[in-house]
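Encode chain A's predicted structure.
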Amino acid sequence: MKRPLPIPIVALGGLVVLSVVVLFWLHGRGHHGAGPVKHAATAPLYEPGDKPATLYLRALDTETGKLVNQTAVIRASRLRANQVKQLLMAFLDGARSGKVQVPVPEGLALNEFYLTPSGQAVVDLSTEGVRKDHVGFFEEALLVRCLVDTLDGNFFEVHSVKILLDGQEVPSLFGHYALGTSEANMASTAAGTSPVD
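Encoded structure for chain A:
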């Protein structure tokens, strides 16, 4: 006659089986933690029925040398991060000739963008196509300030902007203007000098 297994061993075996089932269930639900959505580049930024929304790009008036607001139309998608990315893309692709221009050097490209739950807009750029001899301190400072002002001035959810270069934190994009100063620009706009007043 077989002797039955002791109750503690049966309970331990049942607990192990239950743990494995729960882990597989969580894994199957796609619970992989917080972070950027890797497939965001292929996902549409808006649906065909989304209404247009007029926002503002921070740009340079070439006749006066002053920063001005230039209108941009995006689609009011359900996800705020998609709206921010649409405006960021409009800024990077903005006018580079005429009276009002965005201070974005030719060849600057967006690798990735995401908005963290804490309100940090992470902008990953590539300068590979930029002629770096055409970008000095003034151009680099204007680019960073206008990019930060564009995102912060239109979206109250954006509390800070982090600019990366090819996925890496770097002291500057072109070697002239310290990227940490973009946080200082955010502080000035938070103090009430919003660019879209």
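The radius of gyration is 24 Å.
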